[in-house]
Amino acid sequence: MREEEEGTMADLQRILIVGGGIAGLTLARVLHQQGFTAEVVEHSPVWQATGAAIQLHANGMRVLHALGLGDAVAQAGAIVRHWVYGDQAGAVLCALDLEDLWGGGDPCIAIDRPRLQQILVAGAAAAPCRLGTSVVFLLEEEQRVQVGFSDGSTGDYDLVVGADGISSTVRTLVLGPVQAGYTGLMLWRSLVPIQPPDPTNFSILFGEECFFGITPLLAGPTNVFGAVGMPRVHDPVQGRLARLRKRFADFGGPVQVCLAALSRDEQIYCGPAEWVEVDHWHRGRVVLIGDAAHACAPTMAQGGCLALEDAWVLAEELRSAETVEQALDSYETRRKPRVTWVQQHSRGILERYLLPPAERNPAFRARERQAMHDSFEPLIAAP
């Protein structure tokens, strides 16, 4: 994040943001603050956040505070002070002090996704939004993009931003089919209707090619996930809870408390952890941000933070560049090294998570604290 600087606003009269998630709503707010006119289209007919909860590290909270939304997010979430790694019986292998990890700065906040989305929707209220609307075609011309929508309407825009997630329609229309990569990790997630066993710490307990995470949220419920290194599968809803309990039956203490508090298969969401990597994030006057450009493994909890940073940096470049093309080039040049670092280190951390216990547990006791510091250190500086 650069200091305030004089610059020439790129010639933009109409900007379309496709996708009403973290990246899109954040961009809508910051563009409005920078004096641009933007509108949002979201394919869902209602505001509906996917997933259970999210952790926002200091680099993500830095953007939210700059947007005037940080206090609202902090008040709606729980402060996470440590990441605690343990074996499947619950014995601590190592703990990361997040304040020390980030050299001070804003605390890490864990918040359920619907609450975060409510805050971001309110923050982007100045930007018109059409729900239940998808993009069906993009026709690029020299200085504009003609967009066709699912309701039969069309519009001409000076810039189109694909903020539509890992299965991005905009990315497909611009770059062609891009198959999301499978990280090798299947995830079972839920919000458990109990108070968090450890109200200020995020805990991960490791087993054989699997781990179980417990994230505190404000005044309950508790966000939990079971992660298993395995081939990609479709896990039917019927019988899902029984299968999850069986897979983690050898885990101790808080894991069994959390699983016992679940009562229905429908309480559990299951899906693969995926990643996206493309050579270029923009073509002509169409640009990708967030997961549409660079989804990564979840082991650094940086997906949402990178989306927030993308939105801020793109708006900065649009504000200071003389042309849209220069802004998009600068945005990609500025962001790619940081994003690539996170993608590579997230995959490396996942590999360590899934090592055999006899190899992983001693290594975590001896070296993981320093390894995680090394992974996060480049993110301390503003993007």
Model description:
The chain has 383 residues and is of the alpha/beta class. It has two domains: 15-84 and 99-180 and 276-354 and 362-379, FAD/NAD(P)-binding domain, CATH 3.50.50; 182-273, D-Amino Acid Oxidase, Chain A, domain 2 (2-Layer Sandwich), CATH 3.30.9. It is 36% helix and 26% strand. The chain has twelve helices and 19 strands. It has helices at residues 22-33, 58-66, 70-76, 98-101, 113-123, 169-175, 240-247, 253-260, 291-294, 303-320, 324-353, 357-376; strands spanning 15-18, 38-42, 53-56, 78-80, 82-87, 92-97, 108-112, 129-131, 135-140, 145-149, 154-157, 159-162, 181-192, 201-206, 210-216, 222-229, 269-275, 282-283, 286-288. The strands form four sheets. It has a seven-stranded mixed sheet with strand order 6-5-14-15-16-13-17, with helices on both faces. A six-stranded mixed sheet has the order 8-2-1-12-19-18, sandwiched between helices.
Provide tags for this entry:
383 residues, alpha/beta, FAD/NAD(P)-binding domain, D-Amino Acid Oxidase, Chain A, domain 2, 2 domains, 7-stranded mixed sheet, 12 helices
Number of strands: 19
Counting helices, strands and paired strands, the structural category is alpha/beta
Distance between the termini: 5 Å
Estimate the mean pLDDT confidence.
94
Strand order of the largest sheet: 6-5-14-15-16-13-17
Evaluate the radius of gyration: 21 Å
Quaternary organisation: single chain
Query: Which architecture of the largest domain does the CATH hierarchy give at level 2?
Result: 3-Layer(bba) Sandwich
Q: Helicity range of the residues?
A: 25-40%
CATH superfamily of the largest domain: FAD/NAD(P)-binding domain
* Proportion of residues in extended strands: 25-35%
Largest sheet: 7 strands, mixed
Instruction: Return the domain count.
Output: 2
The dominant shape is globular
- Number of helices, where a helix is a run of at least 4 consecutive DSSP H or I residues: 12
CATH topology of the largest domain: FAD/NAD(P)-binding domain
CATH class call of the largest domain:
Alpha Beta
The parts where pLDDT drops under 50 for at least 5 residues are 3-8
